[in-house]
Write a structure and sequence with these properties.
35% strand; 24% helix; Alpha-D-Glucose-1,6-Bisphosphate, Chain A, domain 4; START-like_dom_sf; SRPBCC family protein; 152 residues; Polyketide_cyclase/dehydratase; 7-stranded antiparallel sheet; alpha+beta
């Protein structure tokens, strides 16, 4: 795979949010909060009590189509970074990754970067949806997250 192909398989968007990193991170690290800011209209609900605390954690999410996904946390730095690889229950993740990075600007504002990386996606059935997950879709999630975090 050339570096050009790889670039096409990574979508990213950033936004400054007028809220502290810890407050924003709570909205991301608590799966039950995620359907409230999902800009892909893909997440339906997640059971309460699954707050992510470490790499290796697994949380479940029900999609709008009724499918359940296990999300395997592969990167975690409290208040700063979280990433997971979704999979069907009991199966190996097919290779795509959702990442959130928070960079505090000051005590009350944070630059948040949301990335969808499907460079290692192996499931052909997911390729169309992966291609449709563009930076503007990620920006929608950031905008909805900002509205919640800023109390709008």
């Amino acid at each position: 795979m050339t570096s050009e192909d790889q670039e096409l398989r990574v979508a990213s968007a950033s936004r400054d949010i007028s809220a502290g990193a810890a407050q924003i991170f709570e909205l991301i690290a608590d799966p039950s909060q995620q359907p409230g800011w999902d800009g892909n209209a893909n997440l339906s609900e997640a059971p309460a009590g699954q707050r992510v605390r470490a790499t290796g954690d697994v949380f479940t999410m029900t999609l709008t189509g009724g499918q359940v996904r296990e999300n395997h946390v592969v990167e975690f730095d409290e208040g700063r970074r979280i990433a997971w690889r979704p999979s069907e229950p009991g199966k190996e993740p097919p290779g795509h990754l959702w990442r959130w990075e928070l960079d505090p600007i000051d005590a009350s504002s944070t630059r948040v970067t949301h990335t969808y990386d499907w460079t290692h996606l192996t499931d052909e059935n997911r390729m169309t949806r992966a291609r449709a997950t563009t930076a503007d879709k990620l920006q929608q999630s950031l905008d909805r997250l900002a509205a919640l975090a800023e109390g709008q």
